[in-house]
Amino acid sequence: MKQYLEVVRHVLENGTRKENRTAVDTLSTFNVNYEVDLRDGFPLLTTKRVSWTNIVAENLWFLSGSSRADDLERHGCKFWRPWTDDAGNVRSDYGPAWRRFPTHGVRDSSDIRVDGDPCLAFNDQIGWVLRELRRNQMSRRLVVSAWSPGEAQSSGLPPCHLLFVFNVQLTPDGERILCLHLTQRSCDVALGLPYNVAGYAFLLELFAKLSGMRAGIFAHTLVDAHIYTAKPDGSMADHDHVPGLREQLARTPRTLSKLTIADSINELSDIDRLTQHGSTADLLEAFKLTGYDPYPAIQFKVAV
Q1: Total domains present in the chain
Q2: Phi/psi class of residue 241: alpha, beta or left (left: φ > 0; alpha: ψ in -120 to 50)?
């Protein structure tokens, strides 16, 4: 995917060295923007292999509202383990915020569920957005936020991809196309970005199907796009992502793959049922990727 390589090249050429909470330096840039048209194919990176199982399992996990790491790890996805607490929960709160955003003083709504304390209610943002897409497609309020200040400000790893917005556009012949814009406060270009673009493209394809439209543009704003690198004295070289990214820049992107979503996926309840009871094989049958022909994987060490 050439857009990914353009981001890599931009950060390598323009990034400035910054220290951060991980103790591994980064080459950091501000306000990187790109977009991908899903009508050209599904944007799973081809300049290195990315696990399709991880993409499907993680995003269904988010949609389920779960924070339990074992709900994800039963599909062999263990990359959230460094941020799992002693109780087995991941404290980045994507799924819980999407499906149960804490709300105070809201007027009566079918989207608000009181949970124990009558002063505290929860908003199912995903359910509301899907209903709006089906009844009011030209709305400019199709927003899902993962940033709950009370949680995020004290979290060891607050949400990185914190806000996304659906938007319907018309083609010249009048067809309605569903688009999605993602705002991301912090982005690890080597490890995180391939998952971010594929994950939100997955959500765009899914919501397009659920709302009876075709998926169009995925647009992405990276507030702090960074590449982890060795210290000037050569230490922390095992965390240096620059060599692996330069290797990808030398590779020519291959033809994009195609995602086909099963006819059985029509409602959020179908997603919930699949997430709760489906095997890994069931997930990959429901969300089938064809034509994926990547270069070999490149290993990058995560900075925790």
Answers
A1: 1
A2: alpha
Q: In what order do the strands lie in the sheet with 112-115?
A: 101-103, 117-123, 112-115
How far is Cα 90 from Cα 205, in angstroms, rounded to an integer? 26
Q: Is residue 296 one of the residues assigned to a domain?
A: no
Tokens (6 digits) for 254: 């291959």
Which of 80, 64, 271 lies closest to 159, judged by CA? 80
Query: Could you list the active site residues?
Result: 160
- Candidates 128, 118, 204, 124; CA nearest to 169 is 204
Task: Judge contact between 218 and 166, C-beta under 8 A.
Answer: no
Q: Tens digit of pLDDT for each residue in 167-213? A: 999 999 999 999 999 999 999 999 999 999 999 999 999 999 999 99
Q: Please give the structure tokens belonging to residue 141.
A: 């309020």
CATH number at residue 182: 3.30.572.10
